[in-house]
Amino acid sequence: MKEALFWEKRxxxxxxxxxxxxxxxxxxxxxxxxxxxKNIDGTLYALTYGKVIASAxxxxxxxxxxxxxxxxxxxxxxTFGCNLRCKHxxxxxxxxxxxxxxxxxxxxxxxxxxxxTALSNxxxxxxxxxxxxxIWFEYVLDTARLARQAGxxxxxxxxxxINPPALKTLLNDIDVYRVDIKGFNEETYQRLTGSAVLAQVxxxxxxxxxxxxxxxxVTNLIPGWNDSNEQLDGLTHWIVDxxxxxxxxxxxRYHPGHQLKEPLTPVETLNRAREIxxxxxxxxxxxxxxxxHPGQNTLCPGxxxxxxxxxxxxxxxxxxxxxxxxxCGYRIGHYRASDIPAAQK
Length: 345
What we know:
Layout: E1 2-3, E2 7-9, E3 15-17, E4 25-26, E5 37-40, E6 43-46, E7 51-52, E8 54-59, E9 73-78, H1 92-95, E10 107-108, H2 111-120, E11 125-128, H3 137-149, E12 153-158, H4 164-170, E13 176-180, H5 186-193, H6 198-210, E14 214-221, H7 229-242, E15 249-253, H8 267-279, E16 285-288, E17 298-299, E18 306-311, E19 314-318, E20 320-321, E21 324-325
Parallel strand pairs: 9-11, 11-12, 12-13, 13-14, 14-15, 15-16
Antiparallel strand pairs: 1-6, 2-3, 3-4, 5-6, 7-10, 8-9, 17-18, 18-19, 20-21
Helix pairs in contact: 2-3, 7-8
């Protein structure tokens, strides 16, 4: 355990957790909504500090990230808990689980060990993923600082559920803010996640972008929930007007799971989302969870040629050189990579 950050004492040994928009008032002996920050005798502790439930070496494309060091490897780590209760969560067995001080399912991994593991496996990136990383704040912060010192990049795969002061602190050492925007009205958020927090999610995405983090957005399209023309039009207009035309937007196919049993997202819905996004000015819209879909490839907005072709999470050729299309010279906006295409390394 480690004493938490972003909290204050209250009378009668209560504590006020100020990490996320829930702003939980936590009684002695209880945890907050996330299930991993506990009031012990009037002090708030992070129960999962240095404890992981899942880890893997992944291609960066699996996050999904398509414009950040394509072809590189990420050391992905996650733990218990989440501050949302998404009905369609694919990792609900760990994200909806509360931690205890002596849970033997969690394996010890110090920040130093996490960085050493990434380096020994030739990873360029540490990705905090699988569950909501903001509730793992203290561990993410310490690990990210050490990773930066070792020359690694840090990726936050997040729902955007964090309060601005905590996000500001974290972004000093985070290179990539990969955020889920789960719909485009508060009613959808309330029904789908249990919390009407869209406004805060959007504010945080804008803040991360203006702070200099690489930003990519994912929307998992669920039939009848967030796939209306109105929501898709509103979200893509917001991206263009607030962040610009070159922010990658990933529209991914929903699979039934946890509490939702709606059928698979039709490919036609994903195609319709792309059409709306392109019409509104977005330049890079990707389709996920549909193997072989041409929407996995990166096209040049200038000449239309395929710059990066992908099969699953594997890239083939990469024709982006020095940040520009190798065919016509068009500058590929919001793209970060080595000057040497990954496929040629």
